[in-house]
Amino acid sequence: MWFSITHRQYFLCVKKQKSALRRQYILPFLSCYNICYVVPQLVGKMPSLRPLFWKKYPLAALNADEWEALCDGCGQCCLIKLEDDETDEVAYTKVACQLLDCSTGYCSDYVHRKNFVPDCIQLTLQKITEIAYWLPTSCAYRRLYEGKNLPSWHYLNTGSRKSVIQAKKSVAGRCISEKEINDDDIDEYIVRWVR
Predict the structure, then answer these.
(1) What is the pTM for the complete model shown?
(2) Domain span holding position 82
(3) Which of 19, 65, 88, 130 is most buried by a 10 A CB count?
(4) Strands 79-84 and 176-177, bridge-based pairing
(5) What is the DSSP string of 37-98?
(6) Angstrom distance (rounded) from CA 140 to CA 54
(7) Burial of 45 (0-12, 13-18, 19+ CB in 10 A)
(8) Cα–Cα distance for residue pair 25/171, rounded to 1 Å
């Protein structure tokens, strides 16, 4: 039986009836602005971004701007995830948080998101150890945490934010809002394009 990943201090899995599924959203940003909108204008202009920081320093040594700059803006972290209570397998759905703009893949009200989605989580170094298993395998935070390189299409490698879309890693145009579905049907929206 699938149940949604639920947050209780350290993302403990809680069995819920299908009709009472709770959702967990995760956004890998630390400050009050949405890095998905800001980074393209700031990369190269922020003196706090050290050259090739993602190759030279571990996650624990990154400053706040570098941490935020790791986000490729794919939006996969804002998709509702389900976890099998017997196998611990995590499945992504194409159902997105109510605040995600499904045409762009960006949060529509990042600064005030907690007012509308109280369970929205900010990814921190402390939390990544608990939740890395359900981040997408292409996620920069997960890859660096696991000692891997950023994917070749990541904008820090290519210099273009469009590369996430060209690599078909963005949710833009591929998801639907949770407001458009019946909670009882959530498992009908499982997708395999998120790995």
Answers:
(1) 0.76
(2) 2-191
(3) 65
(4) unpaired
(5) HHHHHHTTT-TTS-TTHHHHS-GGG--HHHHHHT-----GGGEEEEEETTT--EEEEEEE-T
(6) 9
(7) exposed
(8) 14
Helix, coil or strand: residue 167: coil
User: In the chain, how many domains are there?
Assistant: 1
Residue 4 tokens, joined: 């949604």
User: How wide is the angle at C-alpha 109 spanned by C-alphas 104 and 112, nearest 5°?
Assistant: 160
Distances (CA, A) of 50 to 41, 45, 46, 67, 130: 16, 11, 9, 11, 28
Sequential pLDDT tens for the chain (195 residues): 444 443 322 222 222 333 333 444 444 332 222 223 333 444 455 668 999 999 999 999 999 999 999 999 999 999 999 999 899 899 999 999 999 999 999 999 988 988 999 988 888 999 999 999 889 999 999 999 999 999 999 999 999 999 999 999 999 999 999 999 999 999 999 999 998
Which tokens belong to 50? 């050290």
Longest CA–CA span in the chain (Å) reads 50
Query: 20 Cβ partners below 8 Å, 6+ apart?
Result: none
Q: What is the DSSP letter of 138?
A: T
